[in-house]
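ok so for the tutorial part 2 we go from a plain amino acid sequence to predicted structure tokens. step 1 is just haveing the sequence, like this:
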Amino acid sequence: MSPTFFRHPLAIAASAFLLLWTAAARAETIETAARQAIVVDYNTGAVLLEKNADELMTPSSMSKLMTVYMVFSRLKEGSLKMTDKLPVSETAWKKHYKTGGSLMFLPVHSMVTVSDLLRGVIIQSGNDACSVLAEGIAGSEEAFAEQETRKARQIGLTKSTFRNASGWPEPGHQMTARDLSVLATHLIRDFPDYYPIFGEKSFSYNNIKQDNRNPLIWENVPGADGLKTGHTEEGGYGEVGSVLRNGRRVIVVLNGLTSIKARAEESQRLIEWAFRDFDDYTLFKPGDAVTDAEVWLGTQPTVPLAVADGLTVTLPRTARHEMKVTASYDGPVPAPIKKGARIGTLTITAPGMEDQKIPLIAAADVQKLGMVGRVGAAVKHILWGGRG
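step 2 — the prediction. this is what the tokens look like for a chain of 388 residues:
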């Protein structure tokens, strides 16, 4: 399937310092064996590749990321602490004991810190740890799953529905690749104090050491620091991965692969493709004047125009040199002009992409001339055709 490009759901919110823009461009076509896939530039929200990204799928343990999000949220707001201890109920223990699923191997009726439980979920992929956290937060796993679904809608996961905290196969427990990329973006952006746990390679509990299942942090992938793998018979092998290099981060979501080996190779291949074929280009920094607009009857002859918070774009490297940026406005602009008012439009064109139009705003106030000044400007216009 050929890659397509459009605005990511978090594109506007991903940074307070950039006006984020998604290139509707095409690099060289790349295929993927995954049934569902999406590759996203974290800094700009640009979707570099997608394949069935809005198709509901069995997310397996990748849906544990929503459970982690719920716990991180409680930690950030202060209603939960890493040192708090939660009980391992008989209900949670029996639900996963002897199921063959991933376990943290929690003893029934024991008390476990939130810190250990989080690592049991993130590193060991423990289904039992998920149930204990769910019961501790919401009273029951069913109530917790309902909370997850409500929160998912609030943060932009438009199609995901949760039936449990672990991703254990259950009718109606579904997500999309795009929703997983949005969730990964939230985890990285909203919880910088807790996100590094995803990069930890191993964790021991109850004298049992288990390694992180994420292949990216074990393979020769510089900058890999998250997030989660998953596998069920129905969903196949999946991966939500994130790699940060020289200030640029790429998120990849894959599902429906046929083996652990295929998952590792495909996630690494698409990550390297995204870094090799695309780059982020800062066209204007916050406060940079793009152009000056002529002012009619103002105390200043011109007003600088700017993009509200600067402008960074993600483009195929081959399209960079043929990109054109054009500023336009209807002028002269009559005074008074208030700083921040929309005055014109910045249009960006490049081969193989749709034109992108970004608002240009006044970067300064311009007052209207007094009566004497307006009369002088009118006389000047009558006599010489000039404009004041």
